[in-house]
Request: fold
Amino acid sequence: MARKVTPVPKGYRTANPVLIVQGADAALSYYETVFGAEILSRDYAHDGVTVLQAEIKIGNSIMRIADEMPSFGILSPTSLGGSPVIVQLYIADVDTFWNHVVESGARVAVPLSDTYWGERFGRFVDAFGHVWNVAKRIEMLTPGEVAQRATDTFSVVEPDADLPTATIIEDEVIIPEVSGLELDTAPVLDAVDVTRDESPVSEIEATRSVA
Reply:
């Protein structure tokens, strides 16, 4: 009698991230050391160097790591100049984890802090260019309470500032120089968190509220 085949491998969920990196062996060591990941498997190409896929387990979640292969259009954040994807982690001891990854060289994108939607939340970019949210629930709030806090947070009216306005000339935005004022025109990392369905708050609001 043939063995029954389950459509989803044991330990996997319906959606599972695959992280593409430059130097998968080094990345696996990094995630093992810094994230406390467990390396489950590792498969190499014929060259014995390129990692076709490896499995790691962080907490109760399995994800895969693979080397980039430009000839197949598979590129890492290093080659692309950044990642448009954010992986969300829920960590019980979020402060200890946060301090450890930052001390290990991760770049802080959103500082760790308590948020109006009831989580302690932060965002960082790891040594291989991947972006991570880390969070811990600290309050049990109803959707109505979150909505009221959001209203209170974003309803603060700042006093009018006597600043010159930007000028648009032939589709170019000309921002005048202002003495003593630095204007940050870098794009903000925004993403929608679909890893939890209990909070109606989008990650766009999350970034605005704690940045």
In short: The mean pLDDT is 82.
